[in-house]
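Researcher: I've been going back and forth with a colleague about how GDSL esterase/lipase At5g03980-like might be arranged in three dimensions. Neither of us has a model we trust, so I'd like an independent prediction. The organism is Solanum pennellii, in case that matters for your notes. Sequence below.
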Amino acid sequence: MAFAIRVILVISLVIIQQNSDAQELIKLQNPRLINCRLDKIYQFGDSISDTGNCIREPLCQSHSDCRKHPYGMNFYQNATGRCSDGMLMIDFIALESGLPLLNPYRDRIANFRHGVNFAVAGCTGISAEIMAENKIFNTAFTNSSLTVQLDWMSSHFETTCTTDCRKKLKKSLFLVGEIGGNEFNYGLLQGKSMEELRKMVPIVIQTIIHGVKRVIDFGATRIIVPGNFPIGCVPIFLTQFMTDESNAYDEYHCLKDLNNFSIFFNNHLQQAIDEMKKKHPNITLIYGDYYNAFMWFLRNAVGFGFDKNSLQKACCGTGGGNYNYNIRKRCGFPGVEVCANPSTYINWDGIHMTQEAYKYLARWLIDDMLPQLNCHI
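Model: Here is an independent structure prediction for GDSL esterase/lipase At5g03980-like. You can compare it with whatever you and your colleague have in mind.
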């Protein structure tokens, strides 16, 4: 499965400059989505996809570790608000489409000719009001839920395409998520039971599907709706729910109960997507299988050159032990070190992944999605 990732720098401008829409043009040798002839990409989501919206919200910015070094250390030494050492999956998807990287919506002077990134780190799918009803507190201090991001989209289209959106969006790709994971992450860390969280799944799924309807109403014809990652493999939860019970872990040393919750959520999301497909047979609606993308990657990581002794350790972190994560002394805090080579680690900061990991995940997802996108390969 060839995946050329060597980058050709075309123009020597600083990428994603503050107060400028100048962007260094980056091209892959053999972009695999280019035959889909996409001209724009629109991204909704959370920290898996945020390229700089959170750091432009005062409260979110003040509570975000992603606003400063060492975040972005492999992105031209520039902390752009990406919660990684470098690029994210949406960056690789844009490059694979032959398009520039997506600018964040909250950057008011940015260039949006090739799409917009509406994602906000720390956000939830459901609204702040529903979060409050479930007695779960958003520790990222952002109210920019999926509904808010969709409202931003509406405002954007009102000024860019008004009456001819359907025509202008024919060659666009929409990614509605990954979103709807943080409400459960916050709930788990705040002591909610698995039963309480399972009861929330239908309203989160309903919110995501409503978001899909809204983008279809605007004229979207190609839509990807990603599911959640296997959260039982993530250092923050492996640390939080560490146990001596060996049967709590699967063969990859991931927590079974947490992964089963991800499967439960993803199954409900897939069912909802299948129902949407029946109602909209002319829309290309694809489930983004983040769960199986990650499990494929974890199984093959050592063969790809990742450190077999650090598959579930944070590269940027402290605390020793199996996972190198301490919630009170996180990446970006004074004295917290970064591993010598982030490209040999899957996990960057205990929650998010490294650029190198995101590269391989994008590879799997593009292989999985290409046959469904009806592109001329």
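Researcher: What would you highlight for our discussion?
Model: I'd start with this: The beta strands are 7-9, 26-28, 40-44, 115-117, 172-176, 222-226, 284-288. After that, consider the following. The two ends are 15 Å apart (CA to CA).
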